[in-house]
Amino acid sequence: MVTPNNVKPVEILIIERNPKNLELLIEAFKYSELSYNISFAGNAEQALKMIFQTNEFKKSGKPDLIISDIITYHNEVRKKILDIIIKREATKCIPTVILSSLNEIETLEIQNCPNLLLYKPKTLEENINVVNSIEKFWLSLNKK
């Protein structure tokens, strides 16, 4: 995506363990009208280091938007990660989108609720539709 001179690209962090799912999502973002930079983490530990800019990620920028498949983690790990991202002062303002193919979406505790919850797409076309939903969500948060 070409970035207009006056528009700062959206810094997107994708947390995804499955390389094929990550590849489809990145491909779908090529159809987005958003100006963006994508970083990705293959596990929760790496994601938290990126979000809090620790260790080797001290010089990286904080994400403007987090897209995650974190719901597939074990309940206790999921709860801890969501608590960290959604409840901490430094990160609670970062919009969080959860993608999952599991039927467990309804089991997320309300206090750990992300900003947007979508079923994980399987095809490129479904990924493009999800990216369009994320784009509308992002634009609704950033209306002037």
Automatic annotation (TrEMBL):
Biological processes, Gene Ontology terms: phosphorelay signal transduction system
PROSITE patterns in alphabetical order: RESPONSE_REGULATORY
Residue stretches spanning the membrane: none
Source domain of life: Archaea
Keyword Phosphoprotein: yes
Annotated InterPro entries: CheY-like_superfamily, Sig_transdc_resp-reg_receiver, TCS_response_regulator
Domain Response regulatory: 11-135
Keywords, alphabetical: Phosphoprotein
Matching Gene3D superfamilies: 3.40.50.2300
4-aspartylphosphate modified-residue sites: D69
Protein name (record): Response regulatory domain-containing protein
Organism: Methanobacterium bryantii
